[in-house]
Amino acid sequence: MVLDVLSMGGGVQSTAILVLVAQNKLPKPDLVVFCDTGSELPQTLTHIKDRLIPLAESLDIPFNIVRYTNKKGASEPLYKHYMDRSLIPAPISGQCTRLFKIIPFKRHIRSIVGRKNKKILARAWLGITTDESHRANTSGVGWYENHFPLLDLELSRDNCINILEEYGWGDTVKSGCFHCHYQSAKQWQALKRKHPDLFKISLDMEKKALERGFKGGLWGGSKSITGFDVESLERWFALYSEDPIPLCNENGGCFL
């Protein structure tokens, strides 16, 4: 028997999957798993605690939260992992995704289905939509496979937004780490305005890396976010900075 696991990111697409399950438009998975990096946006954690966990419980679906653990078996948040090493996440490495999303997810599922490798033991449901179908990759291992229920229904991100609006959850935000290098200028602005404590952590993380000799910054992996900390530049960033849709992790790893 294959274990069906909804990988919950807490954002628009994965939330839409659970809503579609509640509406009997998708079959019920056996389990929901949220990989908490320790650097999630506060609104995402509130959304999970107040909405998603109760909804899963009402559907009689277990909702498990897993975290990265170091070699000593202790859990540590993503931002602290990098700060302790005077580093910042970089687009080319993908280390934050691998350590804090993919590995904890695989380890948790392995603890449930066992160590056999000759057949598919689990199926990971990922919230990838038609507008980003290029991210629909294979799992890369032989014991579990990726499944894309939103692609099966031919749904786009806008379709998911409409589904959530109709459900009364139209305020669901894009999930991600508060210091993610894929954030746009407006997202960094919003972080500083709404969560100055988290913006300060991001500044400190970048400062330690720069002092060590790192070339670049947290804004797009190449520019420093210090500009967002200068009040006189706030209006400039608001009016003139380009704000494209963030590219995010091209291999879809952050969906885990």
Question: Could you characterize what this model shows?
Answer:
There is one protein chain. With 256 residues, the protein is an alpha/beta fold. 40% of the residues lie in helices and 9% in strands. The chain has helices at 12-22, 42-58, 78-83, 95-113, 149-152, 157-167, 185-194, 196-212, 234-240, and strands at residues 3-7, 31-35, 63-66, 122-125, 144-147. The protein has a five-stranded parallel β-sheet. Strand 1 (3-7), helix 1 (12-22) and strand 2 (31-35) form a beta-alpha-beta unit. Helix 7 (185-194) crosses helix 8 (196-212). The longest helix is centred in the middle third of the chain and has 19 residues, at 95-113.
What's the structural blueprint in terms of helices and strands?
Layout: E1 3-7, H1 12-22, E2 31-35, H2 42-58, E3 63-66, H3 78-83, H4 95-113, E4 122-125, E5 144-147, H5 149-152, H6 157-167, H7 185-194, H8 196-212, H9 234-240
Parallel strand pairs: 1-2, 1-4, 2-3, 4-5
Helix pairs in contact: 1-6, 7-8
